[in-house]
Amino acid sequence: MSTSSIDSLLHENRRFAPSPEFAAAAVAQPALYDDARADRHAFWADRARELHWHTPFTQTLDWSNAPFARWFADGTLNVAYNCLDRHVLAGNGDRVAFHWEGEPGDTRTLTYAELTREVKRAANMLAGLGIGQGDRVAIYLPVIPEAVIAMLAIARLGAIHSVIFGGFSAESIRARVEDADAKLVITADGGWRKGRVFPLKGAVDAGLAAAESSVEHVLVVRRGENEVEWTAGRDLWWHEQLEGVSDDHEAEAFEAENPLFILYTSGTTGKPKGILHTSGGYLTQVAFTHKNVFDLKPETDVYWCTADVGWITGHSYVVYGPLANGATQVLYEGTPDTPHPGRWWELIAKYGVTQFYTAPTAIRSCMKLGREIPQSFDLSSLRVLGSVGEPINPEAWVWYRDIIGGGTTPIVDTWWQTETGGIMISALPGITTTKPGSAQVPIPGISVDVLDDDGVHVGKEASGLLVITEPWPSMLRGIWGDPDRFVDTYWSKFAGAPKGPLYFAGDGAHLDGDGDVQLLGRVDDVMNVSGHRLSTMEIESALVSHPIVAEAAVVGASDDTTGQAVVAFVILRAKKAATVTATEASVMLRAHVAEQIGAIARPREIFVVAELPKTRSGKIMRRLLQDIAEGREIGDTTTLTDVNVVQSIRTDLG
Ligand code: WT7
Predict the structure, then answer these.
(1) Ligand 1: residues whose CB is within 6 Å?
(2) What's this model's pTM, rounded to 2 decimal places?
(3) For 114-173, how does the pLDDT look when each residue is reduced to its tens digit (9 = 90+)?
(4) Residue (of 69, 519, 506, 532) closest to 282 by Cα position
(5) Atom number of ligand 1 nearest to Cα 414
(6) Nearest 5°: phi and psi at 85?
(7) Is the separation of the CB atoms in 286 and 421 below 8 Å?
(8) Using one digit for the tens of pLDDT, what is the confidence trace for 29-41?
(9) Which pairs count as long-range contacts for 624-633, CB under 8 Å and 24+ apart, including other chains?
């Protein structure tokens, strides 16, 4: 874990209290904290009752089989009904749900009535293809309205979606489709990115060709208009299948614990984990946090979260939270800098965006391009700015507030994970006096602590490991098909805790003098690159799967823009590598990793070395490699088996 964020925080001691006007009109009022403290369960039950239940629940939490939680278990609801029909029936059908903007500049506006109709048709179509409760459907789509429509149609049927980020490779698709035993894959011919169409269906074809799979059909949305291969009988065009399909579909009620989705995320081993989320508790927490953390006034606000729907942020804060709250959103297909570096700011001005939610890496990229770009657009509609995905350095925080937020807009730094489903630690914009670089306080109804390795609370002005001390409604319900890994990964580190099992988040944290929480980054072999989670071991496995590689070690080196960057050290197989230079090998291996996992995992640098530094017990000394990758002087190397190894690596670094 790095302490650089603490050091820089020392130079930024300003505090930012909400303005009296903002505080007075805010959705979240201080009584929320009192209510949650007085009775946590009653507090969450009240939040859950803000949803529409077909059958009201009488039990709030069943923790008798900890760490397998059941929330609101005897209630029934339909998640899609809560996100759609409910708003139409309340007379808000004409409200815009999405202002969608394609990268080439094409647009589509969908009101709640239109989105509801589209989802009903898609649900009928999917039911016609044999999809029903509990079936798994994989989605591999760009950020187009059909991605949201598909997710909601699957939810409406009580089926389970598994969205695969469009940047993942054929091999990643294979692994995910196989692990979840998906019956159907929904993809597109291609999508727009950086001014070009990138093909998607080809990756699905290649992934399925290699998979031992139960996939019956591949449903293809036409978006890129690019050529695609076609497997007759298996492949179907989305628009053709929708022809003549009725838009009459009654939402069936499912149990609160009916699975809603699986989302794969990297862990410390080579194999991604299928994080499982269910319905009632998940929707309760994402709706509550979305409304209160972003101060959502659905009648007048235009909210924009820049996340791709392929990540948890897209699931919780583009699809389920905002739609449950009847929000009007911007949805944008492309990259921030296409066709010009001010595209995001242009969209904020065009739609009058009031809440903007993005990642620190994006903010730092914009800082580098200079303040003139955002300052040439009218950003005065903004009233809340959010950050997520990695610790935000105080410099970026202050720049975000001053340049994007006009020096007045509150910033919410939101800490959470794929596993937590919803926001866990964050300021509330009308209440909290914010501190640059700190996520600060658990939201009402959430309890966290910072412990040392022995499970003892660290006290103020000390660092340790972040734990969540009480179950929460949107917590993961397990890892798909692997209950033991669920228990081992998250619940075994502090298993002997007197108050019951504690959830170990994998993050280091610092408690400041006020008892506020500052996140310090991962303490395990998980890297955070541009707010995306990558496993060192997964990339190492990808590297050693190449015939020229004998051994590989991967570290996350700090990077000014992306937070961390993937740096690999490889030993080549003498014979197989005889014909290539180190530079050629490095080019080849970077491409190989992109092919195996996806472009996001492609190492920034690969160093070809003769040996890797190991401890006497044979463990690779990653800390030392990290020092080298970050250009630091190497400290104590007495534990190395061979001091010369370090020399050879440094020579390779030039
Ligand atoms: C990991 C979870 C939550 C959606 C995006 C990432 C890091 C996330 C923050 C934050 C410091 C953060 C943590 C966490 N992280 N938000 N505000 N401050 N660190 O989801 O891929 O599941 O990654 O992202 O290290 O464990 P994810």
Answers:
(1) 265, 312-313, 388-391, 413-418, 439, 505-507, 519, 522, 528, 531, 533
(2) 0.94
(3) 999 999 999 999 999 999 999 999 999 999 999 999 999 999 999 999 999 999 999 999
(4) 69
(5) 17
(6) -50, -40
(7) yes
(8) 999 999 999 999 9
(9) 625/553, 625/555, 625/567, 625/569, 625/649, 626/555, 626/556, 626/557, 628/653, 629/555, 629/557, 629/567, 629/605, 630/557, 630/558
